[in-house]
Amino acid sequence: MNWWQRLFKADGMEKALDAELRFHLEQQVADKIRGGMTEEEARRTTRLEFGGLAQIKEDCRESRGTLWVASVLQDLRFALRQLRNSPGFAITAILTLSLGIGASAAIFNVIDAVLLRPLPYANQELLVFPVMIGRTGDTLPSSYLSYLDVRAQQRTFDALAGYSMFGRVNLEGPNGPVALSAVKSTDNFFDVFAVKPLLGRTYLPGEDQPGKDNVVVLSYEVWQSSFSGRTDVVGKDVQLDGSPYTVIGVMPMGFRFPLDAREAVYTPLHMNPSWAKSRGMHWMRTVGRLKQGVSNEQARTDLNRVMTDLARAYPEQETGHTVGRLLPLDVAVNSLDRFGKRTLAGPLGTLALAVLALLAIACVNVAGLLMARGIKREREMALRSAVGASRARLMRQLVNESLVLCFAGLLGGVLVGWTVLKGMNVFLVEAMPRGADIHLNLAVVGVAAALSLLASMLASVSPAIRLSGTDPNRALRAGGAGAGTGRSQHRLRSAFVVTQVALSLVLLVISGLLLKNLQSLLHTNLGIDTDKILTTRIELSKGRYAGRDPIATFYNPLLAKIAHLPGVQGAGVIDLLPVQAWGDGYGIHITGQPPYPPNLDMGAETRYVSAGYFDAMGLQLTRGRLLSPSLDKSENLAGTMVVNQAFQHKFFPTGGDPVGAHIDDDPKPEAKSRIVGVVTNVRQALREPQMAEMDWLMDEIAPKDRMQSLNSMALIVRSNGDLTALVPALRNAVHEIDPTVPFRTPATMSGIVSDSLTLDRLEGWLFGIFAALALLLAVIGLYGLVNHEVELRTREIGIRMALGSTRIQVTNLLLGKVGLLLFSGLAIGWMLTLALRKVLATVVEMHASHDFLLLAGVTASLALVGVLASFIPARRAASVEPVQALRTE
Amino acid sequence: MKNPAQLDLPQGTLDLLILRVVALGPIHGYAIAQRIQQMSQDALQVQQGSLYPALHRLEYKKFLAADWKPSDTGREAKFYRLTHKGKLQLESETASWSRLTEVVGLILQGPEGESA
User: Fold this and answer.
1) Which of A185, A236, A565, A821 sits CB 3.0–4.6 Å from A163 for a disulfide?
2) Three-state DSSP state, A640
3) Closest CA to A417 of A452, A384, A445
4) Is B84 a member of any domain?
5) B76 and A51 in contact by Cβ < 8 A?
6) Which chain A residues are within 8 Å of B56, Cβ to Cβ?
């Protein structure tokens, strides 16, 4: 019989053992009777001789090598029974653990996917983004010509590729047009990442030149979604923006560059011919792979050597350009700004701390629960040890009970973690470039589980040691719950409650500040009424508009149609949607003003708009006139534009009139662009201060160049009615004019605002949830403690009241204790918050004066909740009837 | 009621005695205890608390096998019998026990032996 048979036949085994011993007993009794004893006496002496039957059985099991598995299983069965007997305790403990484990598993998964897992490229440590700094000190993309020079003359890169992400392309798929990200790059793009295609090949050298460049490499996602993963796709022709491209390869799953380019196709550059010839046109981003053994600094020096040579050769266009930094790709990926100074590591790290705090609170709570339960079980343990259970055996049983809790908690935790990740999925994908890679990773769950297993083991061991050491004599004699061990455990539990209150306070403070920030960001005065504006992006297929004017054939008819829809108050288009997109600008100089100091940022954002844009957005004209197709034509020698009030403040701080002023965008005086009007501000980016902006009428672009600049525009529709009801009509309007345009469901401007705050909302919510859980757990802990205190002290309270204490005095006595605990918890919590201030600053800044009310409120409400939680048991204490209390003992 | 002539068994000898008794033929636990007591002329009284764990240990080590059979009284009892492995074990243990007592005796009664 091997061990598992033994396990499963355990029952038969037990019966056999029982029968064998009983046989022996009977025989002995029979012998004694035969020897002359009465049956009663025979039985009595036999029993005495036999000693503990249970003990013998246990020894038999033990000597059978009754494997530890068997006794563990027995313990588990017993533990389950015990837990079933106290469902309140079991549910609280399991729920607590599930929440703790689940939350930490979810957060560690995010951290693993976003920060720890390697990027989907070979040699990621060698990959860098050169960050070029222009004359104004701002970052500057590269021009094609200077890129070619740098590529040819550098000596420190294995490959340096240029790419642009301008693009979205429309792929004519089997199910109608789909809008995809288009990553357009030089021929050596894939050499940088050294990732082999799954199917086919990547670009050949020279394949980025016109004539050879109608080739496309599909990302895995596009291959799956638009080509159903067919392997014969390589060599096929597909229509991108109405032009035929040959599919030459498919990249493996997980490969994306840039990492936020989901649903992407990769094509050669296909740039505007004029950009290819212009050294002044800065539009190309670069990414490179360093040669093995070359340091970041060596490479930067190398690139700057080339830049210096270029400045000598082309002083007009290249002077003052330097490579400020080679931003490692793994830093850039999680960067929250353009310079890699703020990265996701900060908020995620703080989140990890928060979740650990939550886990700690959960463990402390479970330990507290186990202790409280332990005190009630002192008698049981004493009884067990009196009938022969060894201390080790009792320990094992107690630890097993916690194991059962822990496993149940783990299962619950996996469930909670999975749900949290699913729930956050949309948020995560939007908030982080690698958000789409976040899935519940069992290895991470394992780590979280191990962590919490360890923690809850620690939490259970100390009560277990105490309990298993119970002196049976004393415990059995003492009658009620043993007061002695109760006291010292009580101190420990008090410490637990203080810890919980302290950690809860930290979490509450952070989440309070975060939610306050979020509120203020959500209610930033953007200069527009976000609830009245509906917007969607329109992407025209370039092939379809080759040789056609998109304004005359598409935008004008569309806007006219929309303007006549019921409820619509205005409609317009703009190339970069306010709030959502910014950064397209350059340094300017107002004609006639003295030269600006070289390091001062004198840039202004530029936008192309339709004439109806200002009304649709709700911007007011404050000076001059708005733009109009009849006045601001492409045939005009000089451009005309409307600027915003921020522009006026920036460039005319002393009060000159911007209207009629020119900017030095052309050497010839008669071709310098002129300001014709000033409008109110609309915020370009939520988190940035208001920027100066110049808006040009889209009609000012020469018809042949229009498609290049206007193929992708944000449609803006203003209505005072139900915005969502407009959507079908908008879809019809778009498709009546051009059925090949993919219609993306419009969003309200307020939706765009909250979308751009995804990370903030995610943070705010997570911290809020954590803080709420922490508060809940702390309250449970406090309630349990006071409840227990009342139970322990019923007799004492009875005596006090018998001696003349009033109910109020008794209540005060208990609440005084609670107050002390709360006060210590809050004090420690504040010390902790202040000590962690630096770490927390990556998530939220704290300004004592500014946030005083909030901070005081949080502290006070935590205290209040604590007092309320202890009020119920305290009242019960006060309602103790002295006579009864004394009699129960 | 403990017999003053009773001896304490050295560690491990009980197993040997049990094997020896069982070697005489299938026998149940109670009878084993009786038989040992008899054979030792009441000098050894095996306690149930050590007998049964020992029996189960020997069964687990496959020195003994057991069957349930009716006893003389008609009740079902667990009868132990020696396995082949048990027989070998008995032989080797008996040999080493004889050798041990011989050696111990040699030393205790040796010419230089002072009173132990």
Assistant:
1) A185
2) strand
3) A445
4) yes
5) no
6) 17, 60-61, 63-64
- pLDDT computed for residue A481 by the predictor: 45
Contact between chains at A28 and B30 (C-beta distance less than 8 A) = yes
Residue in this structure with the two tokens 């309200």, named with its chain if needed? A748
pLDDT above 90 as % of chain A: 16
Domain count, chain B: 1
ipTM of predicted complex = 0.82
Is B56 in contact with A63 (Cβ distance < 8 A)? yes
Give the phi and the psi of residue A177 in degrees, each rounded to 5.
-70, 140
Read off the CATH number of the domain in which B39 is found: 1.10.10.10
Asked whether residue B8 is domain-assigned, the answer is: no
Beta strands A673-679 and A662-663, pairing class: antiparallel
Contact at CB, B73 and A30, closer than 8 angstroms = yes
Position B4 pLDDT exceeds 50: no
Residue B63 lies in a domain: yes
The residue range of the domain holding B62 is: 13-108
* A 32-71 near B (Cβ less than 8 A): 49-52, 55-56, 59-65
B60 in A contact zone (CB under 8 Å): yes
Which residues are within 8 A (CB) of A92 and not within 5 positions of it... i.e. 6 or more apart? Answer: A369, A780
Domain ranges of chain A: 3-66, 70-123+336-481, 141-320, 542-739
Q: How confident is the model at residue A69 (pLDDT cuts 50, 70, 90)?
A: low
**pTM of the predicted model as reported, rounded to 2 decimal places:** 0.64
Question: Cα–Cα distance between A470 and A383 in angstroms, integer?
Answer: 10
Q: How confident is the model at residue A555 (pLDDT cuts 50, 70, 90)?
A: very high
The 10s digit of each residue's pLDDT in A119-167 is 888 888 889 988 888 766 667 788 888 899 999 999 999 999 999 866 6
Is A230 at the interface with chain B, CB within 8 A? no
- Are the C-beta atoms of A203 and A193 separated by less than 8 Å? no
* Residue A697 and residue A526 in contact, taking contact as beta carbons nearer than 8 Å: no
Nearest CA-CA distance, residue B116 and chain A, Å: 35
**Structure confidence at residue A888 (pLDDT):** 56
- Inter-residue contact A176 to A143 (CB < 8 Å): no
For chain B, what's the residue count?
Answer: 116
Chain A residues in contact with B47 by the CB 8 A cut-off are 49, 51
Residue type, A689: P
Residue B115 lies in a domain: no
Percent of chain A with pLDDT over 70: 88
